[in-house]
């Protein structure tokens, strides 16, 4: 009996073991570190607070902890990791049984007892290399899910930055529109007095009143966008969209990277490209699994009938009888691999074009900021002050002062928009080239 067990047990041990690909523990550690914010159920978490007004970084931190889409991606990453030991285990397990023969015909109870041990009758032992490749495919898919989480994290940050900046810029625009309307209201009131005294023509009053109505309409239209932009930002933060929120235009962040540095970092550390690279490797591993479908699968069993007999039995499946199906399985896996390779190649080209566009937008915004901040805004403010002084001394026309004030407000608003566009481009480039550029995520394994 001992000799029989010595023969059977080694063949049954694989059914009790799971193959763990190299790097699985490290990937679980990365997932644990990324998911600290989700350790408690949402209702029990201490979410980052928002000041009044809320800063950009406060909104980003709140989104990282409270956004449901990002949390879903993290749990999908965890679920993908838990599929690795499932795919790395044999489909079969140890099946045991016992029987008792009755009547005994004068034999002892022991001799009438049959003990059976073997593989599960519903599944068979697979070739270990096939199980290992299947585990590797699952592990690579889990790593791809991890990079998908990082991609969504950086996308969320870029979306929060864009929504915050658009909302903050709108607040500045409302203030400028209000100042323009107030200025026109004063001008219209003065024109009305001058018309009454005969010093100004009625046409001038009509023109000012029309401009005043248009300015008030522009201010009202800007204010009508405020609830929607606030709600969009709050939704990204995982906060009730009706919650009051105030923001300010943030100070510009440094971006001391050349175009070449951005491209180099993009090609090496972009999470989405890394995700697709791992998906290609996982498809290659699935192809390896499909090619091993031709290897026969085994079943083993051991019977002990008291002291009377012992029997070891083995069976094998004959996969070549399904040769057409197996050939189709391999061709399907080859087609899936080729499709993913083509998708990743095109995705790389498309994203590289996006980097080019964002770099062009960034450099143009920086050019505009330098022009407006250093020359146009100071010049417009000075011209408005001179026009007001000239009008106050009775040597200039009121319309000249009015136009100078409006130009000063317009160029200041253009400067705010240029700064907003620059910050949006910086956020997009951080998304393309891994957030903060200097803090890259680990690169995917190379075959």
Low-confidence stretches: 436-447
Number of domains: 1
Count of alpha/pi helices: 10
Q: Structural class given helices, strands, pairing? A: alpha+beta
The CATH superfamily is Outer membrane efflux proteins (OEP)
Main sheet properties: 4 strands, antiparallel
What is the name of the CATH architecture? Up-down Bundle
Fraction of residues in β-strands: 5-15%
Distance between the termini: 47 Å
Helix content: 55-70%
SSE layout and pairings?
Elements: H1 2-12, H2 24-34, H3 56-66, H4 68-87, E1 94-100, E2 113-119, H5 128-196, H6 202-237, H7 259-269, H8 271-291, E3 298-305, E4 309-316, H9 323-392, H10 398-432
Antiparallel strand pairs: 1-2, 2-3, 3-4
Helix pairs in contact: 2-4, 3-5, 4-5, 5-6, 5-8, 5-10, 7-9, 8-9, 9-10
What does this structure look like?
Strand 3 and strand 4 (309-316) form a beta hairpin. Strands 1-2-3-4 form a 4-stranded antiparallel β-sheet, covered by helices on one side. The protein has one domain: Outer membrane efflux proteins (OEP), CATH 1.20.1600. Helix 3 (56-66) runs antiparallel to helix 5. The protein has helices spanning 2-12, 24-34, 56-66, 68-87, 128-196, 202-237, 259-269, 271-291, 323-392, 398-432, and strands at residues 94-100, 113-119, 298-305, 309-316. The protein is of the alpha+beta class. The radius of gyration is 36 Å and the shape is elongated. Helices cover 66% and strands 7% of the residues. The two termini are 47 Å apart.
